[in-house]
Records
---
Amino acid sequence: MTYSGFRVIKEALTGHRGWGPAWRTPEPKSHYDYVIIGGGGHGLATAHYLASVYGQARVAVLEKGWIGGGNVGRNTTIIRSNYLLDGNEPFYEMSLKLWEGLEQDLNYNAMVSQRGILNLIHSDAQRDAFVRRGNAMMLNGADADLMSTEDILKRYPFLNVNNARFPIKGGLAQHRGGTVRHDAVAWGYARAADRRGVDIIQNCEVTGFRIENGKCLGVETSRGFVGAGKVAACVAGSSGRLMAKAGMRLPIESHVLQAFVTEGLKPVLPGVITFGAGHFYCSQSDKGGLVFGGDIDGYNSYAQRGNLPVVEDVCEGGMAIFPMLGRVRLLRMWGGIMDMSMDGSPIIDQTHIEGLYFNGGWCYGGFKATPASGMAYAHLLATGQPHEKATAYRFDRFETGRMIDEKGMGNQPNLH
Ligand SMILES: Cc1cc2nc3c(=O)[nH]c(=O)nc-3n(C[C@H](O)[C@H](O)[C@H](O)COP(=O)(O)OP(=O)(O)OC[C@H]3O[C@@H](n4cnc5c(N)ncnc54)[C@H](O)[C@@H]3O)c2cc1C
């Protein structure tokens, strides 16, 4: 069934009896050409592009829980391509372009909203760094706008630019950045992949790999063995635990990141805004809640819940730029497991085991990467070659020392 305005009106007038399930619930087959482990955004996007761009139909996505239950449904929904380094910026700009056409591609309303993102500047040194970043963005075909405090006040009149604890000296804006309804991304990719014959199998945990003579022949699962021509791991925060079953130790640590949503308010925040003197970012959802977050909890964990000191730290950051936040009630908060790589950048690569591929290390920036990650991973799986926009995301950069260290923090996963 194709979704359209006409269809919505027809169903509204006929008691909504014509809607069917958005995807099937198939039993796992004994063998597929491609088995993708993990039904998060990246796994589902990979399946969609494998089927739609590379014409592959014998594809399965194995998800241990339910699709959308991982980080794809837990993030703060921000999309942007405001990166500095050559290894990153073209990739994230490709992603932003794919977001711009996503709803037409998937025939699904993912509520892509290019409401803009503004990074606030609080010091002269920060301005220099942001000017450099803006120039790098424009060199790679992205949009960047260095905004004065006067321009910022026209859009965000409640900001106190002069008399705040950290006075605001300007901002770097990307007007094409914004937000996307996160779980709709999982559902949209799942539905589109299913329509092209991809089997999406929920409640199917991969418990091991069958590897013989250095070749991966398939995966052991909670629902039996599933054979595969190629196995593509794509499990974000569970990367270390999954790949350990193939005998691999990854340059990745797992940490918790928390998110917060307030009660619904009238429209107050027109775009995404980030604080430059601490770690705090915020947007307003279409339901009216302020959606915000900050730093990771900073210790290794596989728990999907966070700790109180970070709640205090994030709220302090918020209060420093929006004192009005102190009067709003918090409705919900939750945590997700982040796959923090040593340089803060991801890995999309073949492993040393024939037929076994890996995608992970997205840290807390993987949601915006979902379309490009899916496209690049599908390209690698189908052609055996890295996608031209993802050539830097190889395992061997940790051996050669060619880190893609966007934050300049060194090999400190807890600081990226
Ligand atoms: C609080 C928070 C805020 C964030 N904010 C942003 C943001 O604003 N912008 C941004 O770009 N990024 C953000 N991120 C990061 C982003 O959400 C992740 O990088 C991205 O979603 C990870 O990719 P994914 O969607 O494929 O992961 P997931 O949705 O976690 O998918 C992985 C899937 O693998 C499954 N799995 C694990 N082990 C197995 C197994 N053995 N067998 C089968 N399946 C398995 C899991 O159940 C899960 O569904 C945020 C993350 C969090 C937690």
---
Amino acid sequence: MGMDVEELMKKLLHSKSCASPMRRITRYLRGVIAVLLSVGCFAGCNVERRKSDAELGLNTQQAAGRRIYDRHCDQCHEPYSSSGKKGPGLKGVFKKEYLSVSGLPANDDRVSEIVRLGRSKMPAFGQTLDQQQLQDLLAYMHTL
Ligand code: HEC
């Protein structure tokens, strides 16, 4: 990104292609605007906007699961990134055959067990979530 902006400025300032000074100024201004826009995007777009349930294409059950995830899991697990917080990121958790940290099979049974019983520094949710909530949560996690 830094390089692009620098190159753009160089091109604009040293451009020999436009003859009239007016055109040159217009070009320069256009460049300044482009730079401002890209800097604005750099600052703003870095923090990814939270997508709505509809944008994610979640059905009612998955959306219910997302709310449970937000309340109980998000503080330790990124849902849309594999980078870790207190626990591993859960992006694509069911897309692989095995869970990355525990090496357990990535299926509903094993993941339910982890959620109900907890694991090392992960707290147990067996007392917090009922069967329906657990099902909703899993349905959502399958969309990650
Ligand atoms: C206080 C932080 C914390 C919270 C809250 C938490 N977890 Fe975890 N979770 C962890 C840690 C730490 C691990 C790694 C455990 C280990 O060392 O095996 C983990 C592991 C996991 C794993 C297995 C990952 C793997 O690769 O083996 C899954 C799946 C998981 N958590 C799902 C959830 C879900 C779903 C919730 C919400 C109901 C949740 N976690 C809430 C910290 C947390």
